[in-house]
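Board notes, transcribed. Complex of a protein with heme C.
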Amino acid sequence: MPRGLVFCALTLFALAAGIMVQAGEEQPIPEFTEAFLKDPRNIEVGRRVWEEQCRHCHGKDAYPGKAPKLTPHRYTPAFVYHRVTYGFRGMPPWKDVYSEEERMAVVAWVLSPEFSP
Ligand code: HEC
């Protein structure tokens, strides 16, 4: 094989590998079982995260228009987890702030019947 071709192939390979690493930045969404979502310990951990970080934007005392009022009945656990982990426009990402357990717990809180903004 001519050297140029080998070089070309290597470059392409490196590019493809780079793209794959980039796409791999998002971790798979963890599985949310009923047992996890209903566990009062998880709900309590999530409630604390909410009070600490989420309420001042999403809560009823927040400056109007700062963040949308959450509508939990329309959400799946995966949706809330994804927003909390990676953020979206004005919503900050929390993956470097809270552990996976804490981010999962805040999902349990938001989707719990006790949730109050
Ligand atoms: C700095 C203010 C701010 C903080 C703090 C914040 N959010 Fe948000 N959040 C936003 C904004 C703004 C949006 C709307 C983003 C958009 O759709 O443009 C949003 C969107 C969301 C959504 C999607 C709402 C929907 O119906 O599309 C969820 C769920 C959410 N946030 C949960 C949380 C949780 C849980 C926390 C705490 C870990 C949190 N947010 C902390 C500002 C904030």
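Residues 47 and 109 are 6 Å apart (CA to CA). The radius of gyration is 20 Å.
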